[in-house]
């Protein structure tokens, strides 16, 4: 039986593509729609409003977004609205409608908070031309948030967005074009959300932004990220893990290192995308090219936190990358022995400064270099994992299957790093002490520990609480902190 037009009209279907930062924006739009009296639909056939929060960072993401929009456009009925939102919408504007006929509205990253009036305006329009809402002003956060949550909860973990946009000049990156300049959220709003997440039983808080280490610069805060971390830890003392992502080279300050080392809730883990390890390549990338700073800072991090896990990412095949420069990157990786590395081939993006460099590296060379770098890193990652064997580490249990429990240690961020495989069914959403007894390149195996054995990883603080069955906590169920 088909749903009535009236009921369908008040339902929305929202598909979120891309990174965790996009997921937060999607949840914020959903929150605003729910407050306005809409209901979320699990099936696009049941919804009057179809929204795709697109990713447009690189070409492969653009193609995925176009494919999702075309699929919904082909299924769309006469009473349904199709909206392209997010990064691809902001970056390409009216081109999106040329690629996907049938789109009714295009709303960009900088005005997600206008989704409700945008839908209402689309409904009022009597002409079929698409409606665009793509202002240049970067008001992604701050005064226009409508007190909406800027979080994405997945099981017992939550991503909390502390800022949006970026003011860095990286030659390969379109984020400043898409998101605008860096805008920090008010500290009080972030701290209040952390308290709400604690009350909801979240066990891991993951701070995200395009550049977390730039937090507070626009608010006049010196060492703003250190200040924010201390405030969050004080306001949410029962969240045992606070994880920091997307640090920018050159801005991991001595104060930040000290704050991480002296605040037990902040796990000794840092994601710092370095992008390359050769000075000349970094200069062409318009990235910080002080290689000595990287060596010195990694040494400081490991001295302050001997158990720290450091994750980074590299781009291979960047325009002009010579054999000598690639060899320099390999030496850099051998020297610093990062725990986790992601290697990506350079993606040509026409609107970025790197597209104007005449010497583009052949695709087969890019692929060969990526494989070579990852082969080099795999031996390092395996050795770093093998060093965990015999330790008792707290593991956040996230799933069951085939007689095993699956979880993560503090050394692993969700979705991008490794897992721990443990026999039996352990309580979902809880931190369980596990003795590590085996190591693979990316994953570990272990046995649960009962009794008084000492945990040799970071201290687990706070009382245990969890979402039922480890499921994501709906935003509407999060407690309100006055």
Count of β-strands: 20
Distance, first to last CA: 44 Å
- Show unreliable segments: 140-144, 459-482
Largest sheet: 7 strands, mixed
> SS-based structural class?
alpha/beta
Separate helix tally: 14
Assembly state (oligomeric): single chain
- Over all CA atoms, what is the radius of gyration? 23 Å
Q: What helical percentage do the residues reach?
A: 25-40%
Strand residues, percent: 15-25%
CATH overall fold name of the largest domain: pyruvate-formate lyase- activating enzyme
CATH class of the largest domain: Alpha Beta
CATH superfamily of the largest domain: tm_1862 like domain
Cofactor: [4Fe-4S] cluster
Main location: cytoplasm
GO molecular function, one term: aspartic acid methylthiotransferase activity
Subcellular location: Cytoplasm
